[in-house]
Amino acid sequence: MTFSELVQRVAELGLDFRVLSDRGEVIVPFRTEQYASEPSLTSDGAEHRTMIVVIKLQDDGRLLRIFAPELYSLEDARFPEAGLKALLAVNWRVRIASFAMDETDGEVRLITDLPIEDGSLTASQIQRLIQSIAWTADELHPVIQRAFAEGEIDFASVEARMQARLKSSNAAHRRRSRSANPKSLPDSTPSAPNSENPAGNTKNSTDPTIANALGGSKPPKRSKRELAKPDPRERRELADLMKAAGGVEGLRKLLEDRGM
Known about the structure:
By secondary structure, the protein is α+β, with helices and mostly antiparallel strands. It folds into 2 domains: 148 residues, Yope Regulator, Chain: A; 83 residues, no CATH class. 43% of the residues lie in helices and 19% in strands. It contains 9 helices and 7 strands. Strands 1, 2, 3, 4, 5, 6 and 7 form a 7-stranded antiparallel beta sheet that branches. The two termini are 35 Å apart.
């Protein structure tokens, strides 16, 4: 791919961007909700925060690199070891992009590389990659920032937020399904065998309401303190779902496809 072709693909996305021809880079700013960058001003004078995403070609146009530079610096970190552990934990959860550090100056950036070789790239492929970079960095910023500043690594708040979004998405999806087909029967499609359902029984067989109606024991009541604590099983299921969906960004796309 040539640099002019790359600029054309980015232009097809309708995003605001700047072209640095002398450096062979396309700069795309993204507004952030959680990532604390330097504040910027809109045309009407309103203040907002942005993240810079850089798109460039390497290896004579055979490799596309997209990254968010200077997200963090080890030189400014109070607990660099905890921060690095948090970055590795994020890399484990994210499939498309990964954090990397420049050992010469301590810069931490989020990077994704895509080999082009003798193929071609579409605008939608580039959009998926740059959204993955921006959304992942913004969504997981509170965890990383806390690790660098306080030495604590805790994904509970991020997982709880994603769990809430997923539950809301599932509820909305069910409402749309019922409105589209109000007389549909409950789903009895056999589910895939797993550790909790080795026989691959139907989904309804694991429904607590149906189990109670068939004479099964009621689940034990949980105190308010226990209900306030994150459910370890739900956290594992969410982590597995994130990985199956393609990481954090894949889960975002799943929610987006459902209109959330």
